[in-house]
Specification:
Length: about 325
């Protein structure tokens, strides 16, 4: 979540130096720069000095540093010049890996645009949990940035001569807009590709609005499919609330693959539409594989919580405020 306090602040040249372990120092060694950028991402420390540090290194001649700075920029895209610089990287950088990193960094802007209800097709405004008053944001400025990024991503997806991995990354970045017809049409197009990574991108995009894609997801809940596609299809089913998908996922429990079992158990526990689900999860909580046991126990805890909440609602008429 991006906060209003980080928006549109002036950054002075005093921030060309950063504080590291109590000492003011300039970071010149590329390994030290990467370490610093990684620390900023992990800690979410977007102080003015750190934002300036990111901005400087988005323009580095070193591909490694530019890419790391692009990934680190995801938490400060509303700061002065950050968004413009990321867009410039996407449009002009010669390294597609860096262009992909810049796209990923800007996914938050799409989400923020939805929270601001910029898409009329969304219907009634969503519940804005953790919503803040954006006193320091000029709505029209934010809308303009949102439209710039949305249209940039759509143009990349629509360009058949563009790098295929970049198109896949752009589709995933627009998955929060999966209620829009134009995005759904591209998801349909990508899922019919013969390229596994393209199908995987489509499945990942489906996960935000799985109720549109029950039949398509079901096709990939099949152990004869590529494992990465099976895992993505299970993951996309997680919030589906679909009994049809739950039944298909239950069939995957015959697999000997620990990853498939873990994904399946956790998803079944969340969908909570499987007959005798508690018994199934109890059985797998005794599985010889520690990873599978842990997933089953986590799913069982989630299942128990959901069952208790259903009991309160259906039997006692309790409504959560």
């Amino acid at each position: 979540m991006l906060f209003a306090g980080t928006v549109r602040k002036l950054i002075s040249s005093d921030y060309l130096k950063i504080k590291n372990k109590g000492l003011n120092m300039s970071i010149n060694n590329w390994k030290d720069v990467l370490t610093k950028l990684s620390e900023i991402r992990e800690k979410g420390d977007y102080s003015p000095a750190n934002v300036q540090f990111i901005l400087e290194h988005l323009k580095s001649p070193d591909d490694r540093i530019r890419g790391a700075a692009a990934l680190a920029a995801h938490g400060c895209i509303f700061e002065p010049y950050i968004l413009d610089t990321l867009i410039e990287l996407i449009e002009n950088d010669s390294n597609n890996a860096i262009r992909k990193a810049a796209i990923k960094a800007m996914e938050n802007l799409i989400y923020e645009g939805i929270l601001q209800n910029f898409e009329d097709e969304m219907g009634s405004g969503p519940e804005l949990e953790f919503y803040e008053e954006w006193d320091e944001v000029q709505t029209e400025s934010l809308r303009e940035d949102y439209l710039r990024v949305k249209n940039l991503f759509l143009n990349i997806i629509e360009d058949e001569f563009e790098d295929v991995e970049l198109r896949e990354t752009a589709l995933i970045a627009l998955s929060d807009l999966g209620f829009l017809e134009v995005v759904r049409e591209w998801i349909k197009d990508f899922i019919e590709s013969e390229r596994v990574s393209t199908q995987r991108a489509a499945l990942k995009a489906m996960g935000k609005f799985p109720h549109y894609w029950i039949n398509e997801i079901q096709r990939f809940l099949d152990l004869s499919k590529d494992k990465t596609l099976v895992l993505e299809a299970i993951s996309s089913s997680y919030s589906s609330n679909s009994k049809v998908l739950a039944q298909q996922i239950e069939q995957l429990l015959t697999s000997n693959d620990e990853d498939i079992l873990c994904y399946a158990l956790l998803t079944l526990g969340n969908i909570n539409k499987t007959e005798n689900l508690g018994e199934i999860l109890q059985q797998f909580s005794l599985h010889p594989n520690e990873k599978v046991r842990k997933a089953a126990r986590e799913a069982l805890e989630n299942f128990s919580k959901k069952s208790f909440n259903d009991f309160l609602h259906d039997k006692l008429g309790y409504k959560e405020e």
